[in-house]
């Protein structure tokens, strides 16, 4: 009796496994430009933008954003008036 039960369960499991649909595993997207291999992105202020990254040794490296250029000088009040 026990062998019949085990045989039935094994056969039913194999039958159901053959009908199962296999899902394709999606690959991770490629890293963004400027990413460092082996690092973890960090969003320190919670605004959704990456502020820097943590390297493999645990040190935080902020992303350097150069300051915007100075505005052009105002036109002088001298000269031709129109």
UniProtKB/TrEMBL annotation:
Q: Which domain of life is it from?
A: Bacteria
The UniProt keyword set, sorted, is: Signal
Annotated stretches, region: Disordered: 26-49, 61-82
- Signal peptide limits: 1-17
Extent of Pro residues compositional bias: 64-75
The entry's protein name is Lipoprotein
Q: Which organism is it from?
A: Sandarakinorhabdus glacialis
